[in-house]
Write a structure and sequence with these properties.
Aminopeptidase, eight-stranded mixed β-sheet, 4 helices
Length: 232
């Protein structure tokens, strides 16, 4: 039988109710059993939980939750064939893009799908120039896959790597993930360069695992572990 020492008890930062979690969940994002909101469990021995640390700020960017007002910027990205050049699915049309955004603004890590989409906005204008997508990949929600899409007009300026570094810190330090992975087409030189630049390790090459534009193509799998992120 588990005793009291195996639990962390604190007030939910969203609704104020007293909640408790096993110490195994210390520092991870979990749903509040009362209000259902995403919260970060207090550290072992601590008495204070936290809301998700969003938005994230970098020297030039803000990574934030999406809003309905982002539709025009979202459509610039999701309807562009160049964005989907190395992907199995093609670009969305306007109606599909609108539906995608309506779903994305409601996402919570505590939902059954465990997905979260963030917008990459410029600090000086709040122009949305990219999207970061995140999804848990294991039952215990300690691992996740992520993907990044950047508006073609803002590429080759370091925005993608700047956003990815901030997002990896968020995942592996701020919400307690153990491992984050990303996949890219082996011929997508820009993506390979970005994932390498931010410190992810190329762990595998999958031969002809995806069917893109009428042919089977190879993919790389990159990964980063929590111990790879410097602690403050």
């Amino acid at each position: 039988m588990l005793n009291e020492e195996n639990y962390i008890t604190f007030a939910c930062p969203k609704c104020g109710n007293s909640v408790e979690y096993l110490e195994d969940y210390a520092g991870t994002a979990q749903p509040c059993p009362y209000c259902g909101e995403d919260i970060v469990v207090a550290n072992a021995g601590g008495t204070e939980g936290h809301s998700l640390p969003l938005p994230l700020s970098t020297p030039r960017l803000i990574l934030r939750r999406l809003t309905p007002g982002d539709l025009a910027d979202i459509l610039e990205i999701l309807t562009d064939p160049e964005v989907y050049r190395y992907e199995e699915g093609g670009p969305l049309d306007e109606a599909e893009g609108k539906l995608w955004l309506e779903t994305a603004v409601k996402q919570k890590l505590s939902d059954s799908e465990g997905k979260l989409s963030l917008g990459i906005a410029q600090q000086n204008s709040d122009k949305l120039i990219g999207i970061l997508g995140f999804r848990y990949s294991d039952r215990d929600r300690r691992q996740a896959d992520f993907a990044i899409q950047i508006n073609r007009s803002y590429r080759s300026q370091g925005f993608g790597s700047e956003a990815a570094v901030a997002f990896l810190i968020f995942c592996l330090r701020d919400i307690g993930l153990h491992r984050v992975t990303a996949r890219c087409d082996c011929s997508n030189v820009a993506s390979v360069r970005l994932l390498t630049k931010v410190g992810m390790r190329k762990e595998a090459e999958y031969r002809k695992d995806r069917f893109v534009d009428g042919e089977w193509v190879n993919s790389y799998r990159f990964a980063m572990l929590e111990e790879d992120i410097p602690r403050p």
